Amino acid sequence: MTALIALEGVSKSFGSVRATDQFSMELEDGEALGVIGPNGAGKSTMFNIITGAVRPNAGRVLFAGRDITRAPAHERCRMGIGRSYQIPHPFANMTVFENLLVGAAFGGNRSEAACYEDCHEILGRTGLLEKANALAGALTLLERKRLEMARALATRPRVLLLDEIAGGLTEHECVALVETIKTIHRTGVSIVWIEHVVHALLSVVSRLIVINFGQKLAEGDPHQVMASAEVQEVYMGISAE
Amino acid sequence: MSEGAATYRVARGTRASRYGALVAIAGLAVLISLPFWGGRADMRTIVEIAYYLALAQLWNLLAGYAGLVSVGQQAFLGLGGYALFVFAMNAGVHPIAAIPLAGIAAALFAVPTAFIVFRLRGAYFAIGTWVVAEVYMLSFAQVSALGGGSGMSLPAAVVKGIAAGRMWRETAIYWTGIAIAVGAIALVYLLLRSRHGLALTAIRDSEEASSSLGVDNFRTKIWVYIVAAFGTGMVGALVFLTKLRISPEAGFNVVDWTANVIFIVVIGGIGTIEGPIVGVIVFFVLRELLADFGSWYLIVLGGIAVLMMLRAPQGVWGLIAERFDIRFFPVQRRLVFDPASFRFVADDREEDKRDR
After folding, report:
1. What CATH number is given to the structural domain containing B120?
2. Range of the domain at B244
3. Cβ atoms within 10 A of the Cβ of B129, count?
4. Distance (Å) from the C-alpha of residue A188 to the closest C-alpha of chain B?
5. Residue A128's closest chain B neighbor by CA?
6. CA-based nearest distance A225→chain B, Å
7. C-alpha–C-alpha distance, residues A113 and A116, integer Å
8. Which residue in A33, A35, A69 sits closest to A49, CA to CA?
9. Count of domains in chain B?
């Protein structure tokens, strides 16, 4: 079976900094994959390369077997790649409902009226229904993070890229978020989730990749990966000795 | 959250928009009847207000929504003006009918122009559009068939061909002016209410997010640029039909056709439909008040613009809308949750009534 997303030897430098260095990975259709690594390890750059916000200097990006290395971001979204930003980018002067409509109408390639039902349903599922008519610029940080996910869902993605969506949440909110993500995953959407809140991550994903200095440090069963000495040292700052 | 059998619909109108529409229709009726009771000077001033209003709406569409801060819209105004002269004088087209043709001509020029200026971004785009407009001006000054640097006048025979009698000629031009201003507002309003309006407002707020949600930013912007050129070209034809004379200097004038228009949009409130309307009123009132002060006029205008940008970048309309929460041109989509009985209340202004 072809992987849904495949990165082949991808590199990206910003000036003298190698944010991504000869990086390869695969995501199977229907899989939930977790990504961890220290700050500045190149996790968000990897997302930007997958979504087309950043073009790699070398390597290939494939989606469902098709080379999309040169495809623009909006086309990749229409193919089924949805993403939420680590730092929310709301359409501040549009309402929450309209924010979803943008994704639904353009990412989902539908007429506007055909999106209302979906958007209404997603607002309910992500707990934003009460805020439907609020301007997105007036939302709290947590609501903005939910909006990021809701908007990406509205594009009817085959894979959802979540970038540190649980950071700053209370324990209770975090549990609710994990449930939401599990539900999305059950409906057949593949997940790639970058997260520092490891316990939340581990309750969803079935495979874990650890990135350090733009390279893959470890990969495999989440609990085994977390237990490995290498990861403990680099990621948790615990000495291997 | 479970809302089971809850019903909802998507509302587009506001109370202000309903009353506003009534007032606008009444106002428009008064304006249309003006040639039968008003003075000729009034008609001329209103035509001038009308074409500045149209230019302001179009520039606002470009800069306020698509983020295309063009300082070169005079390129399309001059092209439209010249196109009118060519169609009316050389092809024998009726001058009023030549106005939309001039718009099409300007739009055709916009396509290759776009391929040059769209390589540039932000401030470079602004400078680039200005440079291109200057190139158009210098090029037209070289064409002796179009009167070269000194320009040309519309022959009396062509002018007489508009309509029989001076009163009907002036009335025809006046009504055309009103139609172009109303047309520009309607164009922007309907565009923003459509699916494309979602893309435009999204691009205005965050280009990075809009592309990651499937909006083709580049294509949307190109279309906006071409549509704005079409409208600006039509205005150019109208302007020089009232002036009866065109020269490269007058046609491609950056102060008249871009600086003044930017002033209007910035003062009124960028990124709203009401803003340019408020701005054009402020602009003409200031012009009346400062008419006797010579070049102080432009200095005061510039000073006010700078002050507004620093103190109230949302413009006069932005301040009003914030304070009183009113919108006369509602382009928002609001989700309204209906109690069951509410479904029987007919309101044909609320589109897309849907039940779950």
Report:
1. 1.10.3470
2. 7-344
3. 26
4. 20
5. B1
6. 31
7. 6
8. A69
9. 1
Q: What are phi and psi of A28, to 5 degrees?
A: -75, 150
What DSSP string runs through A228-239?
SHHHHHHHH---
All residues at 6 or more sequence positions from A148 whose CB lies less than 8 Å from its CB, including other chains: A84, A85, A88, A89, A90, A165
Strand, helix or coil for residue A139 = coil
pLDDT per position as a tens digit, A191-220: 999 998 888 999 999 999 999 888 988 899
Establish if B356 belongs to a structural domain.
no
Alpha carbon distance A179, A158 (integer Å): 19
Residue recorded with tokens 């949600």: B213
**Helices first, then strands: H and E counts in chain B:** 16, 4
Chain A: residue nearest B199 by CA? Answer: A102
Q: Chain A residues contacting B, CB < 8 Å?
A: 51-53, 72-74, 77-78, 83, 85, 89-95, 97-98, 101-103, 105-109, 111-113, 116-117, 120, 123-125, 127, 129, 132-133, 151-152, 154-155
Tell me, yes or no, whether B2 lies in a domain: no
Give the nearest partner residue to A105 out of B195, B208, B212, using CB atoms. B195
Domains and CATH numbers, chain A: 5-11+19-236 (3.40.50.300)
Percent of chain A with pLDDT over 70: 97
pLDDT above 50 (res B345): no
Rounded to a whole number of angstroms, the distance from the CA of B238 to the nearest CA of chain A is: 35
Smallest CA–CA distance, residue A104 to chain B, in Å, is 8
d(CA A234, CA B121): 41
Q: Is the interface score ipTM higher than 0.95? A: no
The answer, yes or no, to whether residue B2 has pLDDT greater than 80, is no
Q: Which residue out of B65, B205, B206, B213 would a mutagenesis test of the A interface target, given it has the greatest number of A Cβ atoms within 10 Å?
A: B213
A98 contacts B333? CB cut-off 8 A: yes
Which DSSP category does B103 fall into? H
What residue type is assigned to position A158 of the chain?
Answer: R
Could you give the angle at which helices B195-205 and B217-243 cross, rounded to 10 degrees?
100
The first and second tokens of residue B65, run together, are 């929504």
- Helix (H) and strand (E) counts for chain A? 9, 10
Query: In whole angstroms, what is the distance from residue B60 CA to residue B262 CA?
Result: 8
Which helix (H) or strand (E) segment holds residue A221: the answer is: none
What does the pLDDT average to over B62-67?
A: 90
